[in-house]
């Protein structure tokens, strides 16, 4: 059957469409890959590191003297690398230690169980072994539900069940079983060691450092929002605000999106040895406390932003002039206090200057409260138009409270982790700078502040 | 050296203290275990199921005809059970299918690589194989960073690297490698099959059912809060409110705490076949949408609650009488609307009655707005004392908006999942009930409602 020319062209173009579709898909995947690598180049490095580790360990397999010793068990080292090598040092260490020690203990237990079961003869052995396996599997599986065990030893529990079954079931003699166990434990230790060494010594990614940076970044994101707020005039129309504040809005929203990551990083950081500026027993838990506070702060900023961008938010000129100044001042000072905290965390120095700005913003909050109380403000205007503005004010006061708590938590971290004192030169420059800047808040420092 | 009598007693009591401490610790662990089992008895059943599956598969090891066929590879079936058997059917299926198919494809690829490398002779083989392993490990590890792959195929990628290395490195001939591959694939398929069968046919825990129940429970928790709010008089002193509302506060806080679980359940539910009232392609994604809305609602309730329990919240008698009625009405009606949605989800029927209550609460919101606008309210009172009350009002109005969105999302779910029409008998009873109840909101149904 011959095809007409038209049909041929149709089929050809049909084929081309298919090829074109495939090509477009490939380009899309390539773009996504590039974006993923560009977003965090450490991903590429991690992939290369895993490839390298796996190649090194598989080379051992070809190295005869070692292979002769381990035999087929050398494969366990390869498997160990694939399952243990994780992104951060902490995760790799945690999984590696879990795997190594669970194999050791459960293997010994399994050998014991095997010996006991073998005593009961050929008929009894499978039954006794099955009972042992059933009991151990039930107990360890249930233990995985304990939150404290789940956080640190979940993988170890699984490997425990696995190794116990593996050793106790294996239909070999008592002598052989010890040899099997020895091979398994030593290959797994070897695999874990190579993973840990490569993870630590070739471009290490520390979960602790990540946690530290993330907390600083979150506080910086809050600072960005307040600075954007303080510089832009407060009660502008919605369109203007949206355009100008877009960056600062993205900033605080990223905090709300990324909650939960801190907990994961904390669980990994606990496994890590001392590195860089961090001691072995660095107070990682304090970071979770600060993280929770920044989250709460972002939470309230979201409410504030919703209030400002709602269509009902329209404020008369009179209110504007009354409320604007203290609001801007509060924002500016809060932003400055947060900036100080960020640089204190980043440089690991005592946050000495933050307190001044916190006090300034508290003074501004007091002024705002006074403005709201003065009857002059709410004469001759509709309550419904007044409420949103007042609302914004009270929300801001609320936010200032949380900023103070964040400052306290950072202070606590600084003393727990023995941050060094701020360089006198730096603070001198800072105070010089403050004198030069037209800082409306400074005059409030001497005003007595009421707490709460 | 002899000990004095006092020293002996001291040592004895020291020992007893140690024993006592151990005993206290044991009792504590036992109590925790009991609490964990009581909290969700499915945990105990899951542990027993895993023990049973593992025992069944390890029995196969002792069953000579099968063992003769598989040899030592039978151990892979045991290992598969330990790593694949998860709590829910969806998680087990997802992990099992990932493991089985990744082993199949990567194994075939590994055999091909092994064949190619063998062509280059004894010296070239290790080098060529290492290059293959390095490349595949790098590519698959990087692919694990793609969010879409991470959600569904993360485990498969890891098993892919593992099997490819395992097969391509193994220092055996081409014939043997096919046998090895065949054994590995068949034992792993066997393990996965036993896991899936036990997971589905013995007391199955469906992630989809869990997700369905959780969404219904979350909406019920919101309803609880509003009912507690509607029945208790609104502007009572803090102490009274704390005591009475404790349950309803716990309820909405549990929503804020459990965010993120829905995403996990959704990822598992996608793997599950049709079960119970759920078809294979049940619109699970819609549950995430409803979940996000309930989360937002709980978010705002939290702000509302913070406002009410703050020390500055004191309201004059006059405001109370003005605002109280519409606020209570809004809460009551919102609570009723949410209850309707809950029973609609639980019974998988169309939520026909919810709309009436939503409209009622919108009418009440309008009334509240009118109250706030009337100048009579804010004459002769301090603005600062008025703001918190007005704030509570506006927050409530905000919450009513979200409730409406939740109702729409549930309606959408009902049409996507083809929920059956509500039983006429039920709705008749319901409307009877409504006639009997002193429902202050019903009269508002006919009032024209402004949207937004």
Characterize the structure shown.
The structure is a homodimer of 452-residue chains. In chain A, helix 9 (207-231) packs antiparallel against helix 10 (238-257). Chain A folds into two domains: 41-201; 207-443, Up-down Bundle (Methane Monooxygenase Hydroxylase, Chain G, domain 1). The relative contact order of chain A is 0.08. Chain A has 452 residues and is mostly helical. The longest helix of chain A is centred in the first third of the chain and has 35 residues, at 5-39. Chain A is 79% helix and 0% strand. The interface between A and B is large, with 66 and 66 residues. Chains A, B: This is Aluminum-activated malate transporter 2-like.
Instruction: Tell me the number of helical segments of chain A per DSSP (H or I, 4 or more residues long).
Output: 16
Assembly state of the chains shown: homodimer
- What's the order of the H and E elements of chain A? HHHHHHHHHHHHHHHH
* Separation of the first and last Cα atoms of chain A: 91 Å
Question: Which segments of chain A are poorly predicted (pLDDT under 50) over 5 or more consecutive residues?
Answer: 432-452
Structural class of chain A: mainly alpha
Q: In the CATH classification, which architecture of the largest domain in chain A applies?
A: Up-down Bundle
On the 0 to 100 scale, the average pLDDT of chain A is: 79
Q: What is the third-level CATH name, the topology of the largest domain in chain A? A: Methane Monooxygenase Hydroxylase, Chain G, domain 1
What integer value in Å does the Rg of chain A equal? 32 Å
Helix content of chain A: over 70%
CATH H-level name of the largest domain in chain A... which superfamily?
Phosphate transport system protein phou homolog 2, domain 2
Number of strands of chain A: 0
| Largest contact between chains | A-B, 66 and 66 residues
Pfam family, one (chains A, B): ALMT
InterPro entries (chains A, B): ALMT
Family (chains A, B): Belongs to the aromatic acid exporter (TC 2.A.85) family.
Transmembrane segments (chains A, B): 100-117, 123-143, 155-173, 185-207
């Amino acid at each position: 059957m011959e095809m007409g020319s038209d049909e041929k062209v149709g089929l050809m173009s049909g084929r081309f469409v298919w090829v074109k579709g495939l090509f477009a898909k490939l380009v899309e995947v390539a773009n996504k890959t590039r974006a993923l690598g560009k977003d965090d180049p450490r991903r590429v490095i991690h992939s290369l590191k895993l490839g390298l580790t796996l190649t090194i360990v598989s080379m051992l397999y070809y190295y005869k003297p070692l292979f002769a010793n381990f035999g087929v068990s050398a494969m366990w080292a390869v498997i160990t690398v694939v399952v243990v090598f994780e992104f951060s040092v902490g995760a790799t260490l945690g999984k590696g230690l879990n795997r190594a020690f669970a194999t050791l203990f459960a293997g010994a237990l399994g050998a014991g169980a095997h010996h006991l079961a073998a005593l009961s003869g050929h008929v009894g052995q499978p039954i006794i072994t099955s009972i042992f396996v059933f009991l151990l599997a039930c107990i360890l599986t249930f233990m995985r539900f304990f939150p404290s065990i789940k956080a640190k030893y979940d993988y170890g529990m699984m490997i425990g069940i696995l190794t116990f079954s593996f050793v106790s079931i294996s239909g070999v003699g008592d002598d052989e079983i010890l040899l099997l166990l020895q091979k398994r434990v030593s290959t797994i230790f070897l695999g874990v060691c190579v993973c840990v060494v490569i993870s630590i010594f070739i471009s290490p990614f520390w979960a602790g450092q990540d946690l530290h940076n993330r907390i600083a970044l979150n506080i910086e994101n809050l600072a960005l929002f307040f600075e954007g707020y303080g510089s832009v005039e407060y009660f502008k129309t919605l369109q203007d605000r949206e355009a100008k504040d877009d960056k600062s809005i993205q900033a605080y929203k990223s905090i709300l999106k990324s909650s939960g990551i801190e907990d994961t990083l904390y669980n990994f950081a606990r496994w890590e040895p001392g590195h860089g500026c961090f001691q072995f027993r660095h107070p990682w838990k304090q970071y979770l406390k600060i993280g929770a506070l920044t989250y709460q702060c972002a939470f309230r900023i979201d409410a504030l932003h919703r209030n400002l961008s709602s269509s009902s938010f329209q404020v008369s000129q009179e209110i504007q002039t009354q409320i604007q100044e203290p609001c801007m001042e509060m924002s500016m000072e809060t932003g400055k206090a947060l900036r100080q905290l960020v640089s204190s965390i980043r440089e690991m120095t005592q946050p000495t200057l933050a307190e001044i700005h916190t006090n300034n913003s508290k003074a501004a909050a007091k002024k705002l409260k006074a403005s709201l109380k003065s009857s002059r403000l709410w004469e001759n205007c509709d309550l419904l138009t007044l409420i949103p503005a007042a609302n914004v004010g009270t929300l801001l006061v609320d936010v200032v409270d949380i900023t103070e708590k964040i400052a306290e938590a950072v202070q606590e971290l600084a003393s727990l982790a023995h941050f060094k004192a701020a360089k006198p030169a730096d603070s001198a420059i800072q105070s010089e700078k403050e004198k030069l800047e037209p800082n409306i808040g400074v005059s409030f420092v001497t005003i007595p502040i009421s707490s709460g």
